[in-house]
Amino acid sequence: SAVGVLFTGGASAGVDVTPPDLVVPAHASVPVGSQVPSTDWPGAIPVHFSWQASDPSGICHSSVIQYWGIAGDPVSKIWTGNDSQVDLDIVQWNGSLSDGVEGHAISVKDCAGNRSIQPISAIPLLFNEQGHAEAIVNEYSPNVYWRGQWQLRDDSTEAYGGGLATTHDAGASVTYAFDWSQAGLEMGSHVGIVMPMGPHRGTVKVSVGANQVATLDTYAPIARSRVIMTDIEVTDTSSPYFVLTLENVGQGVKSKVSIDEFIVL
């Protein structure tokens, strides 16, 4: 992903010749509640862009752009509007480039015509329920540790690409140990967990390292497949591994939980 300022400047209008203040996170995030497509690569994955912009003249225009190669190469706008956040479908990483796109950036223009642009990392990398990278070229997969009884299948209509890991056992868990550098993780990265929801589905406890970070209730009165259940921001790089554990804490008729995919941004 690109770093630094791609461009800052603009034409003057009246006395205001100062570009707007623009704050953009290093990484886009994963929109919780959205659904990923039913097919594997190169299916587009929903990505959440957000930013903060201000200027005495007001902000009159915002854009999300994509570019090829280094700064200065041709760019194209994939969204324009007046909001400061938007969900867009982005083609996932294929191990080299994402549909030829090498990066994204946020562009804002104040009402005097001055513009600021900042890059944002927004190309998703996917890992399936068994920890295998979905990329065509990137062969990295995390270490995976299963505990309890799990059923693995690769022909589920509820899953992205067909792969799904399911358990009915309370206390059953799976741990994924992602290597930072190989998985593309860094401070500010986001990890999304994709799971199916339904009438007989239960609850999962999510931990990063030794710390519980979320409890996910996958119950829904009507079945929904390939749902992004949570978005975890990476804030600790003290270990060379990002260790993610999911544990089934469901009981009775709501004891079934399934794992579909992980999205890394």
Mean pLDDT, all residues? 85
Low-confidence stretches: 1-8
In total, the number of strands is 21
Radius of gyration: 20 Å
Number of helices: 1
Strand content: over 45%
Helix content: under 10%
Q: Output the helix-strand order.
A: EEEEEEEEEEEEEEHEEEEEEE
Largest sheet at a glance? Answer: 5 strands, antiparallel
What would you say this structure looks like, in words?
The chain is an all-beta fold and 265 residues long. The chain has 1 helix and 21 strands. The strands form 6 sheets. A 5-stranded antiparallel sheet has the order 1-9-8-5-6, with no helix packed on it. The radius of gyration is 20 Å and the shape is elongated.
Summarize the structure.
This protein is mainly β and 265 residues long.
Name the features.
single chain, 265 residues, mainly beta, five-stranded antiparallel beta sheet, 21 strands
SSE blueprint:
Layout: E1 7-10, E2 21-23, E3 44-50, E4 52-54, E5 59-67, E6 75-81, E7 85-91, E8 103-110, E9 114-120, E10 125-128, E11 143-147, E12 151-153, E13 164-167, E14 173-179, H1 180-183, E15 190-197, E16 203-208, E17 211-217, E18 224-233, E19 241-248, E20 257-259, E21 261-264
Antiparallel strand pairs: 1-9, 2-4, 3-7, 5-6, 5-8, 8-9, 10-21, 11-14, 12-13, 13-20, 14-19, 15-18, 15-21, 16-17, 16-19
